[in-house]
Amino acid sequence: MNFSKNVINWYSDNKRDLPWRHTIKPYYIWLSEIILQQTQVKQGLPYYESFVKAFPTVFDLAESEEQNVLKLWQGLGYYSRARNLHYTAKYIVKELDGIFPNTYKEIIKLKGIGDYTASAIASIAFGEVAAVVDGNVYRVLSRFYGIDTPINTTKGIKEFKALATELIDQKQPALFNQAIMEFGAQQCKPKNPYCILCPLQSGCVAFQKNKISELPVKLKKLKVKKRYFNYLVIIDSDRNTIIEKRIQKGIWQNLYQFPLIETEKSITISEFKLLASENEFLKHLNFEFNLFNETDIVHKLSHQHLYTKFWIIEVNSLPRKGISPNSIKDYPVPALINEFLSKFKF
């Protein structure tokens, strides 16, 4: 069986009509690939369209304020992607005169770009024979060839990259890369793949050995960390409030939030009173408060779960300069905060 030919033939009949497939301009390919990292197409597509509209060229993206980029990215998660995207746009404009590098070796040097993204851009935009290996490709190759090497190990990464490089169509690298990724996304899906109608069925080891659900193999992730967030929604008599920028590294860097107190466990109202009496920010305030949500709101991230309470703090005057509730919409905030804002009425 000619693996590459079958996958390409399937793609020609089944590919989705997506805007980044109508161009070979590296800026648009790069933009789509960064947005689609750890994001499904149906979720990423509106963001891609919004970014293209707001920043039609790399110069437009480079000239924008980071806050505007983060605001447009709001809700997509993994915000380091947006920060790196903006940084790299400025680098391309300032250091490379706005000209995108045209080889894998040069593209992978850019901030926020790894092997997969560099391979995708190099092959799709410039026709370089550089095999892509993403989650879809891992799944297709591991099942078809019956490979049980864990995909999140150094050995697995090298093994699958070598196999993809061996299989790529030398004359049509862009077509093959897009075909195998689409095949994994649409045909050889994680759950309930269309094996009965699969053009690779006769040569698929996983299908023959009934191991579809067992492949690919991935080592267990690190234990998920639990964190307990207490947001202080401070409101004065004019309904103004306070937000602050998360400047420390980690989740949501450079996004905005209400003042935060992190505790070792979920706290009760009586425990909050004690905490307030000892907290440098609150102990000098004369305030009344109530709890917005008695049950913790659980916000799940890849490696940590946030158990969150929103404490509504009413004061006569704010301890520092605040903003009107209507102004909050102009600031990029985490999805957790945005969800609260959609429910709470100032």
TrEMBL record:
Enzyme Commission (EC) number: 3.2.2.31
Please give one Pfam family short name. HhH-GPD
Q: How is the cofactor bound?
A: Binds 1 [4Fe-4S] cluster.
Q: Residues in domain HhH-GPD? A: 35-186
Q: Provide the reaction this enzyme catalyses.
A: Hydrolyzes free adenine bases from 7,8-dihydro-8-oxoguanine:adenine mismatched double-stranded DNA, leaving an apurinic site
Task: Write out the function statement from the record.
Answer: Adenine glycosylase active on G-A mispairs. MutY also corrects error-prone DNA synthesis past GO lesions which are due to the oxidatively damaged form of guanine: 7,8-dihydro-8-oxoguanine (8-oxo-dGTP).
By sequence similarity, the record places it as follows: Belongs to the Nth/MutY family.
- Protein name from the UniProt record: Adenine DNA glycosylase
**Species annotation:** Winogradskyella haliclonae
State the taxonomy lineage.
Bacteria, Pseudomonadati, Bacteroidota, Flavobacteriia, Flavobacteriales
Tell me the gene name. Answer: mutY
